[in-house]
Amino acid sequence: MMQDTLRNTVDTYADIIEAMEDLEIAKKNLVSRLKVKLRLFDGSMLWAREVWVKGEMDAYSYYWLRSDETVIIGWDNAPHHKVVKTFPHHRHIENRVEDSQERNMSDVLHFIKHFLG
Questions:
Q1: What φ, ψ does residue 12 adopt, rounded to 5°?
Q2: Cis peptide, bond prior to residue 79, ω within 30 of zero
Q3: What tens digit of pLDDT does each residue of 14-34 get?
Q4: At 84, phi and psi to the nearest 5?
Q5: For residue 3, what pLDDT is reported?
Q6: Residue 105, Ramachandran bin (φ over 0: left; ψ between -120 and 50: alpha; else beta)
Q7: How far apart (Å, rounded) are the C-alpha atoms in residues 7 and 91?
Q8: Spatial distance between the Cα atoms of 15 and 93, rounded to a whole number of angstroms
Q9: Phi-psi category of 54—alpha, beta or left, where left has phi over 0 and alpha has psi -120 to 50?
Q10: Which residues fall within 8 angstroms of residue 98, CB to CB, at 6 or more apart?
């Protein structure tokens, strides 16, 4: 399921994704882990990590980086910023933590595509 979701997402955003690199998929019992780097058309990259339990995404982090590997925006659902309205979902922009509606790789790539115009 996780691999199908990844392939569908990459296909959907093929206009902004130049390459998929450093793909790691690990499965143990009912837990699957995904790590992947997507190189985007403008030289930036998206590092993605997902943990799936029983076929449902349980945890995620997506970090959009410039070509020099400095962070543009990071999204995750680690439960450590209880002040955000969308807890545990949030995004990091510079030194700020904000509410986030982006909760999967497709949402994040949609945001990036529209941000880049």
A1: -65, -35
A2: no
A3: 999 999 998 999 999 999 999
A4: -75, 145
A5: 81
A6: alpha
A7: 24
A8: 25
A9: left
A10: 84, 90, 91, 92
Quote the domain boundaries for residue 52: 2-116
β-bridge pairing 56-65 and 17-28 = unpaired
How far is it, in rounded angstroms, from Cα 50 to Cα 38?
Answer: 14
Count up the domains in the chain and report the number: 1
HSE, side-chain direction, 13 A CA sphere, residue 65: 14
C-alpha to C-alpha distance for 73 and 27, rounded to whole angstroms: 28
pLDDT score, position 4: 84
User: pLDDT tens digit string along 36-59?
Assistant: 999 999 999 999 999 999 989 999
